[in-house]
Specification:
Layout (H helix, E strand, L loop, with lengths): L2 E12 L2 E12 L3 E5 L6 H8 L7 E6 L2 E2 L7 H5 L2 E4 L11 H11 L5 H14 L15 H13 L5 E5 L7 H16 L4 E4 L3 H7 L2 E6 L2 E6 L1 H6 L4 H11 L1
Parallel strand pairs: 3-8, 3-9, 6-7, 7-8
Antiparallel strand pairs: 1-2, 1-4, 4-5, 9-10
Helix pairs in contact: 3-4, 3-5, 5-6
């Protein structure tokens, strides 16, 4: 498959601490790739670098045919091609859910408010939040807030959806409703790169799983292979924590 998003030999350090060390990864259109690894392995930094929220020290990032790591690119224009969802929701507390969802469409893409809101209401209805459209985020549960954040990310039809540990801040009973929405997006053909601790979800939904450890890719492959018969000892050691 032709790569829609491709990272080549990415390096990133904070002060003297190397966080990404020669990471190369590809994502094809309509593919779901799960990035797994312990906390501090570099998963969040990888996603932030891919979406240009963090500059890389070395390497190259291609989105389609465009080298988006070229320092001459318009970073804001590139970021508008991604939908990014973080673990901490990041909804604007002073705005209604509807205003949060339509903000990028109205401000960045200059879409008419009426059109942006009509699309947003359809999406919110799809995830069971139509009745919360006029509410402020503090009136929503954590799961509802995260679903609203995902709707905000997909409202502009991004080329790639980057999901960064989106269930880690949720109470256990709310995790399922958020993962079900991601499952629906995957079934609809979204292109998703997802950093996650949810091993069962990665096994069941992802087309490919990447195991990141110490800022390096140790192993990657189809879920059945990586979870069922991992080649590397470090992968087996990591997965043993979830199956013991």
């Amino acid at each position: 498959m032709t790569a829609l998003l491709r990272a080549e030999d990415l390096w990133k350090s904070f002060d003297d601490r190397a966080v990404l060390q020669g990471v190369s990864v590809e994502l094809a259109a309509h593919e779901v790739v799960a990035v797994i690894g312990a906390s501090g392995s570099g998963k969040s930094t990888l996603l932030r670098c891919l979406s240009l929220l963090e500059p890389i020290d070395d390497g190259r990032i291609l989105l389609g045919d465009d080298d988006i790591s070229d320092p001459r690119v318009d970073a804001n224009r590139v970021r508008s091609r991604f939908g990014v969802v973080f673990q901490s929701y990041n909804l604007f507390p002073h705005m209604s859910v509807l205003d949060n969802v339509t903000l990028a469409s109205r401000v960045v893409r200059k879409e008419a408010k009426k059109d942006a809101e009509a699309r947003a209401l359809l999406l919110l209805d799809r995830v069971g939040l139509a009745d919360k459209a006029r509410e402020h985020p503090d009136r929503l549960s954590g799961g509802q807030q995260q679903r609203a954040a995902i709707v905000r990310a997909i409202a502009t039809d991004p080329e790639v959806l980057l999901l960064d540990e989106i269930t880690s801040a949720l109470d256990p009973e709310l995790v399922g409703e958020v993962l079900e929405l991601v499952r629906q997006l995957a079934e609809d053909g979204a292109t998703i790169l997802m950093a996650t601790h949810e091993m069962a979800f990665a096994r069941d939904v992802a087309h490919r799983v990447v195991f990141l450890d110490g800022g390096r890719i140790v192993e990657q492959g189809p879920p059945a292979e990586l979870f069922g018969a991992p080649r590397e000892a470090r992968t087996r050691e990591f997965l043993a924590r979830f199956t013991a």
